[in-house]
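Why should sequence recovery work at all? Because a backbone constrains its sequence more than one might expect. Tight turns favour small or flexible residues, buried strands favour hydrophobic ones, and helices have their own preferences. The token representation captures these environments compactly. In the example below, the structure is given first.
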């Protein structure tokens, strides 16, 4: 009987510790010749394993800035970013590079495929570079994303939607623990964006990774489990 109370507290403590991504009191100001641009003024958010979240907010509100900091592409001024128990904000440049290689994958609005490589080689590229190429998983991704008939083509021979499908295939081929996407559907029409989102959510679910996606579209945001909005440098209360 006397052990009941601590036993009840344990699951809560465990779930807090299991958060895949935790951002706390994050701040970032750009220093420019024209002056200081305070962008993030104390951002807090959390994402669990296998969870998807839409990050919304007006143009210039700092969504890309936040994604860059989470992705270890730039350093914050203060605050904390913890990914899978690793405090990104305390890593060296080398440590952040390793995090990008081992844990994260990023998809941008510009598809960023390598023009001189076939779609097959593009999809495998990052996984091979990271020494994590898995033929069976790559084949499954190719099938789920409907890329089978496009494998020997070059990026310029694909439509925007097809290129974006290849880009997410490349990102997920490494089996990241966290997928970050910055307006991945920004260059796609509505129907293609919907199709892309359905496929993306399918393959994200298959990996069980966390998914943080910047979008301006309420319609697409509604397909994700959580929605947050950046406004005046902080996350609006839901
Ligand atoms: N490298 C930089 N140097 C100086 N200012 C920057 C830099 N990057 C972004 N900014 C400024 O920081 C603010 C936030 O930019 P950010 O790109 O994060 O916005 P965003 O929410 O992604 O906008 P959008 O929806 O248009 O993509 C803007 O005022 C922008 O001009
Ligand atoms: Mg942006």
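From this structural description, the recovered sequence reads:
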């Amino acid at each position: 009987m006397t052990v009941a109370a601590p036993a009840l507290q344990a699951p809560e403590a465990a779930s807090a510790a299991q958060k895949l991504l935790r951002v706390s009191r994050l701040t970032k100001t750009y220093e420019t010749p024209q002056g200081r641009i305070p962008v993030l003024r104390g951002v807090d958010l959390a994402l669990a394993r296998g969870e998807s979240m839409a990050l919304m907010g007006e143009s210039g509100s700092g969504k890309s800035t936040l994604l860059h900091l989470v992705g270890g592409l730039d350093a914050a001024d203060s605050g904390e970013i913890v990914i899978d128990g690793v405090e990104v904000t305390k890593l060296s440049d080398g440590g952040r590079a390793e995090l990008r290689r081992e844990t994260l994958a990023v998809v941008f609005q510009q598809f960023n495929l390598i023009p001189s490589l076939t779609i097959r080689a593009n999809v495998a590229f990052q996984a091979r570079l990271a020494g994590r190429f898995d033929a069976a998983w790559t084949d499954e991704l190719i099938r789920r994303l409907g890329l089978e008939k496009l494998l020997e083509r070059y990026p310029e021979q694909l439509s925007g939607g097809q290129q974006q499908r290849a880009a997410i295939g490349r990102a997920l081929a490494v089996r990241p623990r966290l997928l970050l996407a910055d307006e991945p559907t920004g260059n796609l029409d509505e129907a293609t964006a919907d199709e892309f989102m359905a496929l993306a959510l399918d393959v994200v679910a298959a990996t069980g990774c966390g998914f943080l996606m910047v979008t301006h579209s309420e319609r697409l945001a509604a397909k994700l489990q959580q929605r947050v909005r950046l406004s005046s440098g902080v996350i609006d209360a839901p």
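A few observations help interpret the result. Residues 63-64, 182 surround magnesium ion (ligand 2) (CB under 6 Å).
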